[in-house]
Design a protein that fits this description.
The structure is a single chain. Helix 7 packs parallel to helix 9 and helix 9 packs antiparallel against helix 10. The chain has 366 residues and is an alpha/beta fold. Helices cover 44% and strands 17% of the residues. It folds into two domains: 252 residues, 3-Layer(aba) Sandwich (Rossmann fold); 88 residues. The longest helix has 34 residues. The strands form two sheets. It has a nine-stranded mixed sheet with strand order 5-6-4-3-2-7-8-11-9. It is built from 14 helices and eleven strands.
């Protein structure tokens, strides 16, 4: 792999490209080479692995991943970072770079085209993303093509190598780390393992076990799919720009069987409305969320073996599943969730208008 850039060299390179780390993308570049090597070692990557990296950044971790893996598919949302890392990583022969938002435009789940291409690769060894890079009227000699806001650059000399395992290894953008991880678990992609750098408090919430401290909505959704543990605590000083919080290397190991997705989505809807009132007793929280009487919600919770006086995070996952499937509760949750989504959409529209005004007045947020 090309020699990774030291921080002083990286700053000069970014200056030459006219870019800086952007707060809105949660860009904090990991600059400790020993830690980068440790991440690859902890992930136990070898030539039988296809690694998905979300957040290419300057390509430092990407290069080490390419040294160990059979194939690396690295996704970057920022055009400037994509172009700079593409040039830095010239000469790497087992890398496909994708410029797109890894999350779908609706903000739910991973990008459909990215997921579909990876599923096809797992199934047949073909990577449809490469068709975007190497064919069509907008392709050029560099093997890049822009289509539907996605750009693909292949460093491969031919067909992608066939790998038997799929892993997610990344220094995730902190602003969307939880959403990305839950979306990856929900996507249906057969990840063998995930090893990701996230904020320490995010890692605590995702790794929490039922009934323990920090157990809540993120850990409940993760629990449905996988086991999780914190592998390393990471100081802020190894990043640039230096974040205000400590970080952690979080390991997620998917369970042997996926949950029934229909039941899971019922659970997710219930959890979203219930955890809006997490400091109240479950019966009170459910009554507030569904606009029902407390005696009625207490009766529903008791009927499935739950404690109406327990807070939402104190309800065992099995009880939450049963409550989500309750024939009287489920349609009311759907109605409450629909109202909640309408409120979120209105808020998002207001924030988007405000952001557009700021861009016009102050220019792009860095």
């Amino acid at each position: 792999m090309p020699e990774p850039l030291k921080l002083a060299e990286l700053k000069l390179r970014m200056q030459a490209y006219g870019i800086r780390p952007k707060k809105k993308f949660g860009q904090n570049i990991l600059c400790d080479f020993n830690l980068l090597k440790a991440i690859v070692a902890d992930a136990e990557i070898d030539e039988g692995d296809c690694v998905l990296e979300i957040g290419t950044g300057a390509g430092s971790l990407t290069g080490y991943l390419c040294d160990a893996a059979g194939l690396v598919i690295s996704v970057e949302v920022d055009t400037g970072m994509f172009e700079m890392s593409r040039d830095i990583l010239t000469g790497v022969s087992n890398l496909v770079q994708v410029r797109c938002d890894a999350l779908s435009q609706q903000g739910r789940g991973l990008d459909d085209e990215l997921v579909g291409s990876l599923l096809e690769y797992v199934r047949s060894g073909d990577l449809p993303l490469l068709d975007s890079a190497n064919a069509g009227p907008f392709a050029d000699a560099s093997g890049s093509k822009d289509h539907d806001s996605m750009q693909v650059h292949s460093h491969l000399s031919g067909k992608p190598p066939r790998c038997g395992r799929l892993k997610l290894v990344a220094n995730l953008p902190y602003s969307v780390a939880t959403t990305l991880l839950i979306s990856a678990l929900e996507s249906g992609l057969p990840f063998d393992r995930m090893l990701v750098m996230v904020q320490y408090d995010v890692a605590e919430k995702l790794a929490a076990e039922p009934g323990k401290q920090y157990w809540g909505l993120p850990s409940l959704l993760r629990w449905c799919f996988a086991e999780a543990s914190i592998k390393r605590k990471v100081a802020a000083k190894v990043f640039w720009p230096k974040p205000k919080v400590e970080s952690a290397l979080l390991e997620i190991r998917p369970k042997a069987t996926r949950p029934d997705m229909a039941a899971y989505h019922k659970l997710r809807r219930l959890a979203h409305v219930l955890f809006q009132h997490r400091r109240k007793a479950s019966s009170n929280a459910l009554a507030l969320a569904l606009h029902e009487d407390n005696w009625q919600t207490s009766e529903w919770i008791e009927s499935i073996g739950g404690d109406p006086g327990a807070r939402p995070e104190q309800l065992p996952p099995e009880v939450m599943y049963a409550l989500a499937a309750h024939e009287e509760v489920e349609p009311l949750v759907r109605k409450a969730m629909s109202l909640h989504e309408d409120q979120l959409a209105a808020k998002a529209d207001k924030l988007a208008r405000r952001a557009e005004w700021k861009r016009r007045v102050y220019g792009e947020e860095e």
